């Protein structure tokens, strides 16, 4: 990770995120949260949580280009909107809307690097309906405009 940060080669942000996620998974799997042995009930509950989150992530992946409401996502996993909101925040550390916006911005970053589509075309492909909202979220996430990001990340040949 240190090397990636120092070299800042094209796509280094993605590599850093991938490395951090690998570290998170390693810690999650290998460092017990409580002393003692987990009961089978705790294991089943954890498995259920992971399965529900996986369903949510798959739903987002399949539908991020369209308008997604909390009610639709909650219904897709059999939860009320109220319970889903608390469930998602408790198990991911962020709100569903923040997660969805981050996912869409990540898709936009990938398209900026790997396509020649205009920013307007990319906005229409990622499910954010307002250009103003997109630019605000992008700048909030990356600290620069989409075009500056493209210039910085696309390797000149």
UniProtKB/TrEMBL annotation:
Q: Name one Pfam family in it.
A: HTH_18
List the keywords (alphabetical).
DNA-binding, Transcription, Transcription regulation
Looking at the record, the residues that make up the HTH araC/xylS-type domain are: 54-152
Give the highest taxon in the source lineage.
Bacteria
Question: Which protein is depicted?
Answer: HTH araC/xylS-type domain-containing protein
């Amino acid at each position: 990770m240190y090397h990636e940060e120092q070299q800042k080669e094209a796509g280094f942000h993605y590599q850093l995120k991938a490395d951090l996620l690998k570290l998170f998974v390693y810690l999650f799997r290998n460092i017990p949260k409580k002393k003692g042995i987990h009961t089978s009930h705790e294991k089943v509950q954890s498995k259920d949580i992971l399965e529900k989150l996986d369903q949510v992530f798959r739903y987002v992946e399949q539908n991020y280009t369209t308008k997604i409401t909390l009610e639709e996502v909650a219904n897709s996993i059999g939860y009320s909107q109220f319970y889903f909101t608390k469930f998602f925040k408790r198990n991911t550390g962020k709100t569903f809307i923040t997660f969805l916006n981050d996912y869409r911005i990540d898709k936009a970053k990938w398209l900026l690097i790997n396509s020649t589509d205009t920013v307007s075309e990319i906005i229409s492909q990622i499910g954010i309906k307002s250009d103003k909202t997109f630019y605000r979220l992008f700048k909030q996430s990356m600290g620069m405009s989409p075009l500056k990001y493209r210039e910085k990340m696309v390797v000149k040949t």
